Amino acid sequence: MKKRGQVTIFVIIAIVIIVLGVLAFFLYPKLKISTGFNTENPELFLQNCVENDLENLIETLSLQGGEFNPQGYTIYQDVKIKYICYTSDYFTLGLKQVPFIKRFVEDEISVQIKPKVDECFDDLVLKYQQKGYEVSSKKGNIQTEILPEQTSIDLIGYNLTVSRGENENRFNLFVINLDNNLYELLNIAEHIVSWENEFGDADTLSIMMLKKDIRVNKILRDDGSKIYIIENKKTKEAFQFASRSLVFPAGLF
Q: What are the angstrom distances between the C-alpha of 3 and each of 7, 17, 87, 228?
């Protein structure tokens, strides 16, 4: 019995070692990519440095109607949600507060993510210097483009020249990409806002019939406002915004 117990323990230890070895095999390359620094690929360093902040920023903007510090908003579940269509009057159609939602969100991302990009760019310069390179660098502007299944950050005017001995490398094209479904969510939001602006309400059922992977929740508020929550069922990504349009006084009907 004692020998059987020892064998059992050895088997368990062997299984644990094998499992840890398999996990290390699959996880180590990812850890190497996220924490390492490749002098030949500074763009990868910037990607890894900015990616988490960019993802968190887009999530925050999506919950607040596309604006980091919402101006003209209602509060729902302790979150300030921007009115993208609004009127304070009764019997009146709301006016669009944002002409083009996608462009508005792109500009907001550019403004809010630039400090992090600059911080990561400075860290990149320091990494090269620590490895004995002479570095010449220049910062520029940020341009965001929300594309199908991807948000792209172009670093325009950012230049980096590194040299050591007779070897010199110049880098002047940096792009940071994040896979997401923001493009689709914003397109649907644009359609809903157009309906709110023209008719005072939006047919969310027809959207969900056409877009099987999309859920649109319309929440009515006591003041006549509506909160629209557009969610991708698979990824759970969501964009929400507020509207107040064609409101009638309570008790009129």
A: 6, 21, 82, 67
